Amino acid sequence: MDYILHPTFSLMLAVLVLYTGRLLNKNIPFLTKYNIPEPVAGGLVGAIIFYIVHSTTGYTISVNKLMQDTFMLMFFASIGLSANFHKLKEGGKPLVIFLIAISGFVVIQNGVGMAVAKLVGLEPLMGVVAGSIALIGGLGTSGAWGPIFETKYGVEGALPLGIASATFGMVIGGLMGGPLARYLIRKHQLASPLNTMQRSDNSAQPLTESEYIFEAPQKVRLITADNAITTLGMFAFALAFAEIMKNLTLGTAFELPTFVWALAGGILLRNVIELGFKRPIFDRAIDVFGNTALALFLAMALVSLKLWQLTTLALPMLILLIAQTIAMWLFAVYVSFRVMGSNYDSAVLGAGLCGFGMGGTANAIANMQAITNVYGPSHKAFLIVPLVGAFFIDLVNVVVIQIILKFFA
């Protein structure tokens, strides 16, 4: 039996999860040492508790999906609202290089998936479902493509397979990003951990103009009620735009996950206001709402993971997903890190890549925050990852999937 929490209790649970994660990270050196994000630590504890409840009573407890999705869309809208054309230009060559590299990984991820699926006796298209659809795409993309693969291409069980694979990816993406970046930083002696006084001084300083959204969530943002109301209005526009575009493009060649339209709505509104009406945008309020939405969405998403879906995966499916995890690690260490300069920024980018390459952009941001809170800021990573991971790569993913289906379906 399913029991869905009331929105009020869903919000309360999310806050408890975040404080649990903070408490765990403060008292368990392993979590801090390997830079595990607080929502991941607290969310997995909640998911395990719900798993025990499900196993002993048969009840499935979930947070309010509408509230969870709203926070997710707010997070992506905040990325769009922070992405003016000046920042896109500022990303310049590194952004293009990173996008090209990650576009190559979309092909690799599907190639690994199809090869391993065939090796273990599964339908090769199963490898695409457990490839970029579930891992680069996430839960939303899995939910959109699953029925298409089942009805149009005869891939039986594509929907539950995609959901389970995306669930696996969210967990692994949140767990591996921090350790990978730490490994690269220590191996190549790229940075030293900040001491307690440096972290305290860093947190006490207001956000500077050179720092990007989500880069330093612990820093002070000075906002007023008027700024907050105006910013909420922009968020409402971006979410309304996403809903309209989702309905208009449903079943067409332009159909995209709703969060992509929320991000696009934010970009559109931001640049119309700045370039068309010559009005300034109050970035600090976007920072506050964006970071709040990110934390609450991650807490709700992770505590709602149905871990029993992973235990019911067949051994061949587990082998496939383990192969994808290894491919992600090797690509991040030996390709992405090197092409992006083999420096501290590229190590932080690696943490972000593990996040959206295995789970989602929210995971990517949390991974990078966990690293920069310990080792210091990385402006380049927080400029590039949100744009590539939340927008450009989804467009690339759609094109790659369509090409694969054309030749292999």
Automatic annotation (TrEMBL):
GO terms classed as biological process: L-glutamate transmembrane transport
Keyword field: Amino-acid transport, Cell inner membrane, Cell membrane, Ion transport, Membrane, Sodium, Sodium transport, Symport, Transmembrane, Transmembrane helix, Transport
One cellular-component annotation, GO: plasma membrane
Alphabetized GO MF terms: glutamate:sodium symporter activity
Subcellular location(s) per record: Cell inner membrane
Major subcellular location class: membrane
Spans traversing the lipid bilayer: 6-24, 36-54, 66-83, 95-117, 161-185, 222-242, 254-273, 285-308, 314-335, 347-366, 381-405
InterPro entries found in the cross-reference section: GltS
Superkingdom of the organism of origin: Bacteria
Pfam families: Glt_symporter (PF03616)
Membrane topology note: Multi-pass membrane protein
Record bears the keyword Transport: yes
Role this protein plays: Catalyzes the sodium-dependent transport of glutamate.
PANTHER family to which the protein is assigned, alphabetical: SLR0625 PROTEIN (PTHR36178), SODIUM_GLUTAMATE SYMPORTER (PTHR36178:SF1)
Family recorded in the similarity comment: Belongs to the glutamate:Na(+) symporter (ESS) (TC 2.A.27) family.
Protein name: Sodium/glutamate symporter
Organism annotation: Acinetobacter tjernbergiae DSM 14971 = CIP 107465
Lineage, highest ranks first: Bacteria, Pseudomonadati, Pseudomonadota, Gammaproteobacteria, Moraxellales
Gene: gltS
